[in-house]
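dumping this here before i forget
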Amino acid sequence: MADADGRCAGAGAKAAVKLLAILAGGLLLAWPAAFNAYPLVFIDTVSYLNHTTLPETPWDKTQAYGPFLHLLHWQVSLWPAVLAQGLTASHLIWLAQRMVLGVARPGAHLLACGALAALSAAPWFLATLMPDALTALVPLALILLGFGRLTRAETVWVALVGALAIAAHLSHLPTAAAMVALTALLARRVGPVLRAALPLGLALAVLAGSNLVAFGRATLSPHGSVFLLARLQDDGPAAAVIRARCPDAGWHLCAFADRLPMDSDTFLWDGTSPLNRNADGSPRPMGGVAGAAEAREIIAATLREHPGAVAGAMLRNGLAQLLKPRVGDTLGNEHLALSARIPIARSFPPRELAAFDAGLQMQGALQARAAPFLVPHIPVLLLSLAGALWLLWRALRARDTPRAALLAGALLALLANAAATGALSKPHERYQARIVWLLPLAVMLAALPAARRETAP
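structure:
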């Protein structure tokens, strides 16, 4: 009896230490929120808050991240949401350590989370309330499902995290598909592939179902054609099609053919752009929604008539995106007074608005105060790239599939993310910075010696 009691006490102590390590890791990974004295926000955050507080269904975003935020803030405080993001990432990192090493150790976990917090982009996105916080969790979750030797409860949890992360942003879909393909290549068994594909299937169902309810179309993106058109006219091929076919085509954009091409962001968001103005100069309300059907026609014509030019532009944009991994363009206070501040003032207690206004970001001081912390990111990323290639070669030679999966998954995720965001949108630093922290994580874990596989987690 004494032995049994001792074993139970020992197991309870181990579970408590594990929980504390994951909690501490989550806090480390969200430290910029404490540094700012408030969760970081971006201009897009307003759409996700309005989604459930007005409510107002966003036409230009998916319908997953807004309800996720509401589940945690309940119009009281945004702190639980940012803490949840850090804790979720910490738990997946714990499981990744166990996958690679055979056992997860609290000390090694805190070391990994601390290194990511100090030397990578991870905390600057995990502390920000937008879907970019979940981008790196997509490949991490799918790799764990394929190779992590998870318990049944862990499998359900990781699959749900993966599904939420994929559904939160359309650009996550290609990365998820790439991870499923990698799982098939490395595992060569049906089970791991099905587990890795489960979150992708769930996300596709959520996207199609939510769009059917909101917009009457069971599609992944009822208005996504507008974003691709913005990119294709900026690159030139779609602008050439519009000039060649107008005015006979009868398109709304025919009246503005002489203004194209233009910057894709200006095309999408500027109030004076052809998308958002009528031919007589009057405003065109919800121009992105109104122009979606026409955009599909122009895109189809562009792909038929200029496939080589489109492919070349997508390749150039993808390469440009790959070389933009710096944190910074989400830290300013531009437009925040006219975006995120409004739903906080309208729907949250006065103390929450006061805290938001007092934060470094809203005061315009965050970028300068954060600058010294961002200096190590690029050198660490370059060293991690070299280390990842060397460690991947060693893992493949040793037939260490979990280690190879984590390293190859990180490298492939960076390429897939750059291809998706660069080809379908304007390259921005935040699009690549949000995912590059996977590389130093993979290198740190893969460089550690493995424990005996039979050791209990």
